[in-house]
């Protein structure tokens, strides 16, 4: 097992949130920002995943391969730049990887921010996870060669690496020391830092941050406003969700050791941090968007799976999800 590198952002007060932009079925460009509403003197960090690349479009493992952005990826980067500009963001320094899809995204964002004079550093530590022999292959081709279960394990687990590549733990082993040595000191000085990199290099950084904002960003506020407008136009949605929650609680009642929560958020208490994250990865590999929640978000010793019910699923999906949870936790002490 590769060693994990843990860090805690606690030298200076600053906060975080995550907003993901989705186009079609694939997550495209994500922004994670330390909002500018924090107290005076605190650093501001904005993390941005690059726009869609040619390999993303072709559903290929990219890793250290170096394809450019697609025309859609260019539009995504411009859109994020405009959003940040409209929100009043400005920066003292920017970091990106040595790969062109991240560098292109950064330059497009800086152009929209009218900030091309901002110092930019291209860093190998921020490169995407090395997918080894998977790099350049389509996901279907990889599954045909190694099997769906093995490929899912390489993609979702924390410490299992694909042949000739890196695990997420190994990726964190280079990104987190870089964050501590180069970015954290700037934030402690109250600097505003923009990082444009890759899904896994950013994921390893975000996983290490344990101070979170409760204040919504402008993007979140807009999304909430639109959701409220939809509810006004389609009031039956609330009753449909209420019915789905009631159905789910009845189904849960058939399984021992799992208490219904009374809401659309269903916590499944696991206890150990590592076990909760392993279970979440296994369920995600089976197609269920179930997240592991660890301390300090929840009390020590109560790491859990968080299952959120929405109208995007139906009764058959609920039954399949519950069966998957039972199968993956068979043998666990409850």
From TrEMBL:
<dbReference type="InterPro" id="IPR001345">
    <property type="entry name" value="PG/BPGM_mutase_AS"/>
</dbReference>
<comment type="pathway">
    <text>Carbohydrate degradation; glycolysis; pyruvate from D-glyceraldehyde 3-phosphate: step 3/5.</text>
</comment>
<feature type="binding site">
    <location>
        <begin position="155"/>
        <end position="156"/>
    </location>
    <ligand>
        <name>substrate</name>
    </ligand>
</feature>
<keyword id="KW-0808">Transferase</keyword>
<feature type="binding site">
    <location>
        <position position="101"/>
    </location>
    <ligand>
        <name>substrate</name>
    </ligand>
</feature>
<dbReference type="InterPro" id="IPR005952">
    <property type="entry name" value="Phosphogly_mut1"/>
</dbReference>
<dbReference type="GO" id="GO:0006094">
    <property type="term" value="P:gluconeogenesis"/>
</dbReference>
<dbReference type="InterPro" id="IPR015422">
    <property type="entry name" value="PyrdxlP-dep_Trfase_small"/>
</dbReference>
<feature type="binding site">
    <location>
        <begin position="199"/>
        <end position="200"/>
    </location>
    <ligand>
        <name>substrate</name>
    </ligand>
</feature>
<dbReference type="GO" id="GO:0016746">
    <property type="term" value="F:acyltransferase activity"/>
</dbReference>
<dbReference type="InterPro" id="IPR015424">
    <property type="entry name" value="PyrdxlP-dep_Trfase"/>
</dbReference>
<dbReference type="GO" id="GO:0008483">
    <property type="term" value="F:transaminase activity"/>
</dbReference>
<dbReference type="InterPro" id="IPR013078">
    <property type="entry name" value="His_Pase_superF_clade-1"/>
</dbReference>
<dbReference type="GO" id="GO:0004619">
    <property type="term" value="F:phosphoglycerate mutase activity"/>
</dbReference>
<keyword id="KW-0032">Aminotransferase</keyword>
<dbReference type="InterPro" id="IPR029033">
    <property type="entry name" value="His_PPase_superfam"/>
</dbReference>
<feature type="site" description="Transition state stabilizer">
    <location>
        <position position="198"/>
    </location>
</feature>
<protein>
    <recommendedName>
        <fullName>2,3-bisphosphoglycerate-dependent phosphoglycerate mutase</fullName>
        <ecNumber>5.4.2.11</ecNumber>
    </recommendedName>
</protein>
<comment type="similarity">
    <text>Belongs to the phosphoglycerate mutase family. BPG-dependent PGAM subfamily.</text>
</comment>
<feature type="active site" description="Tele-phosphohistidine intermediate">
    <location>
        <position position="50"/>
    </location>
</feature>
<feature type="binding site">
    <location>
        <begin position="49"/>
        <end position="56"/>
    </location>
    <ligand>
        <name>substrate</name>
    </ligand>
</feature>
<keyword id="KW-0312">Gluconeogenesis</keyword>
<dbReference type="GO" id="GO:0006096">
    <property type="term" value="P:glycolytic process"/>
</dbReference>
<dbReference type="Pfam" id="PF00300">
    <property type="entry name" value="His_Phos_1"/>
</dbReference>
<keyword id="KW-0413">Isomerase</keyword>
<feature type="binding site">
    <location>
        <begin position="128"/>
        <end position="131"/>
    </location>
    <ligand>
        <name>substrate</name>
    </ligand>
</feature>
<comment type="function">
    <text>Catalyzes the interconversion of 2-phosphoglycerate and 3-phosphoglycerate.</text>
</comment>
<feature type="binding site">
    <location>
        <begin position="62"/>
        <end position="63"/>
    </location>
    <ligand>
        <name>substrate</name>
    </ligand>
</feature>
<keyword id="KW-0012">Acyltransferase</keyword>
<feature type="active site" description="Proton donor/acceptor">
    <location>
        <position position="128"/>
    </location>
</feature>
<keyword id="KW-0324">Glycolysis</keyword>
């Amino acid at each position: 097992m590769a060693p994990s590198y843990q860090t805690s952002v606690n030298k200076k007060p600053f906060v975080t949130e995550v907003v993901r932009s989705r186009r079609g079925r694939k997550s495209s460009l994500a922004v994670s920002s330390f909002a500018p509403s924090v107290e005076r003197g605190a650093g501001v960090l904005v993390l941005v995943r690059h726009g869609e690349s040619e390999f993303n479009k072709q559903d290929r493992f990219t890793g250290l391969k170096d394809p450019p952005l697609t025309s859609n990826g260019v539009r995504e980067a411009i859109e994020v730049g405009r959003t940040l500009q409209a929100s009043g963001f400005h920066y003292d320094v920017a970091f990106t990887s040595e790969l062109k899809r991240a560098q292109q995204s950064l330059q497009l964002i800086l152009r929209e921010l009218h900030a091309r004079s901002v110092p930019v550093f291209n860093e190998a530590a921020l490169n995407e996870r090395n997918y080894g022999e998977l790099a350049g292959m389509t996901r279907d081709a990889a599954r045909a060669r190694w099997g769906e279960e093995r490929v899912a394990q390489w993609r979702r687990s924390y410490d299992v690496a694909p042949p000739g590549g890196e695990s997420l733990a190994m990726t964190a082993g280079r990104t987190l020391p870089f964050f501590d040595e180069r970015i954290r000191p700037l934030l402690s000085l109250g600097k505003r830092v923009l990082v444009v990199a890759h899904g896994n290099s950013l994921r390893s950084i975000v996983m290490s941050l344990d101070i979170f904002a409760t204040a919504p960003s402008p993007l979140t506020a807009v999304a909430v406003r639109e959701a409220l407008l939809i509810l006004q136009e389609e009031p039956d949605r609330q009753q449909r969700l209420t019915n789905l929650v009631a159905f789910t609680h009845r189904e849960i009642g058939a399984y021992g050791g799992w208490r219904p929560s009374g809401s659309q958020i269903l916590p499944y208490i696991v206890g150990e941090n590592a076990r909760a994250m392993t279970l979440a990865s296994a369920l995600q590999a089976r197609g269920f968007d179930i997240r592991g929640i660890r301390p300090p978000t929840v009390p020590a010793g109560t790491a859990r799976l968080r299952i959120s019910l929405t109208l995007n699923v139906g009764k058959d999906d609920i039954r399949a999800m519950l069966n998957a949870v039972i199968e993956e936790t068979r043998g666990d002490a409850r």
